[in-house]
Design goal:
There is one protein chain. This protein is α+β, with helices and mostly antiparallel strands. It has a single domain, classed as Aspartate Aminotransferase, domain 1, CATH 3.90.1150. Helix content is 38%, strand content 25%. It is built from four helices and six strands. The protein has a six-stranded antiparallel beta sheet with strand order 1-2-3-4-6-5, covered by helices on one side. It is globular. It starts with a helix and ends with a helix. The mean pLDDT is 95. Keywords: DNA-binding.
């Protein structure tokens, strides 16, 4: 899996856009205005994604290439290696999971904005 495939996959999701809110090397993908994925362009072999806390622990125990995300709340965020033992289909599934986790926590205002977009 490469970052361009991940980028294209993320941008196909409803209400998703990319930006550089922190600096010029941390590419962030947001749904409405909430982050669900980050790629550090200085370390493009790793991506960070939101995850259900119990599922995050399960994944970390099963895959060498999934660990608590650096500079994030480690309870809710994993960093996933694109070069380790994590299959491509699981990476795509985890992107979907991260996106869904963010949407579940939308405020009423964010949900309205999301629903208004096609």
């Amino acid at each position: 899996m490469d970052i361009e495939t991940i980028r294209e996959y993320c941008l196909k999701k409803k209400a998703t856009f990319e930006c550089f809110p922190f600096d010029e090397v941390n590419l962030v993908f947001k749904v409405v205005d909430r982050m669900f994925l980050l790629i550090d362009l200085d370390r493009p072999e790793w991506i960070s994604m939101k995850c259900d806390p119990e599922y995050a622990i399960e994944l970390r125990e099963h895959y060498r290439g999934i660990e608590p995300a650096y500079h994030f709340n480690k309870k809710y965020w994993n960093q996933v290696s694109l070069e380790a033992d994590v299959p491509d289909h699981l990476i795509l599934s985890l992107i979907d999971h991260s996106y869904d986790e963010v949407i579940k926590k939308f405020t009423r205002k964010q949900r309205v904005a999301y629903n208004e977009l096609s």
